[in-house]
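TA notes, week 10

Several of you asked for a full example with nothing omitted. So below is the full record: structure tokens for the whole chain, then the designed sequence directly under it. When grading your own attempts, check the secondary structure regions first.
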């Protein structure tokens, strides 16, 4: 019932990437829970999310306490802290989250995330670099 309306998003890690995902979802009128281990970040995002919470997502009990199981789609944007990103992804898949999309920091990280069952792994700099290269060549064709 009301599947579309009740779809719940959560974004873990509110750096440039995660912050941008969160803000865009919220601006589009979706329900989004913003999560960061850093209290100031969590507070800052209370204005850009339905709810925001300070939480270490490598803590399984804490994840369960906020009812993460009710979220259908979770984005993990813990960049630099590869170990935390890996553990968080593992826990989310173990808890049965349907869609777990993760930002990878490097190709090794990307490989591990794939093995853990991440549903989508993005590597923004790498992906965007490729896209730009394609855009450069396609623009050339059009300009010709
Ligand atoms: P960018 O800003 O380009 O996206 P990034 O992906 O490296 O870079 P960071 O600036 O490292 O992003 O931000 C990641 C965020 O994840 C930080 O705000 C950090 O506080 C948060 N974070 C790190 N570890 C955890 C954790 N265990 N649980 C929840 N949030 C975490």
């Amino acid at each position: 019932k009301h599947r579309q309306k009740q779809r719940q998003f959560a974004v873990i890690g509110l750096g440039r990437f995660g912050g941008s995902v969160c803000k865009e979802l919220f601006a589009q009128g979706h329900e989004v829970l913003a999560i960061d281990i850093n209290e100031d970040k969590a507070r800052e995002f209370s204005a850009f999310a339905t709810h925001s919470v300070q939480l270490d997502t490598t803590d399984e009990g804490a994840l369960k306490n906020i009812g993460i199981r009710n979220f259908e789609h979770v984005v993990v944007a813990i960049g630099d802290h590869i170990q935390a990103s890996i553990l968080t992804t593992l826990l989310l898949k173990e808890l049965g989250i349907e869609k777990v999309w993760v930002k990878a920091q490097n190709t090794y990280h990307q490989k591990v995330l794939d093995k853990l069952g991440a549903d989508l792994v993005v590597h923004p700099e790498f992906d965007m670099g490729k896209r730009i290269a394609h855009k450069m060549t396609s623009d050339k064709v059009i300009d010709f």
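The beta strands are 9-12, 32-36, 51-54, 73-76, 99-103, 120-122. Use that as a sanity check on your answer.
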